[in-house]
Amino acid sequence: MSNDWLEVTVRATREQVEALEGWFFDAGALSVTLKDSDDDDDLAHAVLEPVPGEVRLWESVTLVGLFSRTTSLETLQSALHLSAALSGAVVPRFSVSALGDREWQRTWMENFKPMQFGARFWICPTEQAVPDEQAITLRLDPGLAFGTGNHATTAQCLSWLGRHSEASLTPFSGQQVIDYGCGSGVLAIAALLLGATQAWAVDIDEQALLATRSNAEQNGVTDRLQVGQPALVATMSADILMANILFKPLMELADSLADKVKAGGRLLLSGILEEQMDPLRLRYNANFKFEPSQIQDGWAMMTAIKR
To answer: How far apart are alpha carbons 274 and 193 in whole angstroms?
Structure first.
């Protein structure tokens, strides 16, 4: 298995998904796939982000964590047990399998097609034709960092950015943007292509930072994008801050994120379930006035204006 990516597979109920995702990422997973346990066609559905309109939280869910090819089986097993011990959880029953490069890339490309967000903004794989020559197109190929636009959490943020393209191809002209927990960097790059003056993309995952730099170069925005660990934006503030992460860090980082938004600026929170909206709103309410939220397949995106 040393020359292949390692996949760890666990079956769970929908109530167990959030805790198991945390278990995977704490153990070093590069990505986590959610699949319907009742669907036998694993290969066709083995994508990091489900297609739009697909039910996200089935009654019985299969989680698949992808781990680096540099991880040995022994190291992986130790990491999984340590991750469970640190959270006080019991190690679930899991299986480990190998995933070769060709299989991974083929699965991705079969499922990744051009996607439209708003009137004149598209995301399109590099090997496919641009659907609209008059629109803004972000070129993006599937990679190991989360964020292509297929998953509801990313799609809602992209739709918010793209909806402003109807009146202008550069609706964010003159604005500064922070993409906190950038993954592939897709949100920061989208904002720049739509006119933002400067963007900062930060993540604690080095794989995400590598993916973001590569995608920025592909789209010609490296001169306006700074990429790094969260310390990069420790003392700055922006007109728009997008945080497409998870409920727990959004709660823990509330004060810090609030400080990074200018007065009158906008905050986008995503990566959360519908039932997590109320406690999150209460946590941020002192600093922000919330706008109507968006919900898609049980996932929510919240937007707010800094008081």
So the answer is: 30
**CATH class of the 5-107 domain in this structure:** alpha beta
3-state secondary structure of 229: coil
Q: Round to whole Å and give the CA distance between 209 and 32.
A: 18
Rounded CA-CA distance 233/200 in Å is: 7
Q: In what order do the strands lie in the sheet with 121-124?
A: 115-116, 121-124, 136-139
The length of the chain in residues reads 307
Domain 112-306 has CATH 3.30.70.270: no
Q: With left for phi above 0 and alpha for psi between -120 and 50, is residue 174 left, alpha or beta?
A: left
How wide is the angle at C-alpha 301 spanned by C-alphas 296 and 304, nearest 5°? 150
Q: Is 78 helix (H, G, I), strand (E, B) or coil?
A: helix
What are the two backbone dihedrals, phi and then psi, of residue 108, each rounded to the nearest 5 degrees? -60, -55
Residue ranges covered by each domain of the chain: 5-107, 112-306
Task: Answer yes or no: are the C-beta atoms of 238 and 245 closer than 8 Å.
Answer: no
pLDDT at 37 > cutoff 80: no
Chain center to CA of 219: 19
User: Which segments of 162-287 are extended strands (E)?
Assistant: 176-180, 198-202, 225-228, 238-244, 261-273
pLDDT tens, 157-168?
A: 999 999 988 889
Beta-bridged to residue 272, according to DSSP, are 300
% of the chain at pLDDT higher than 70: 85
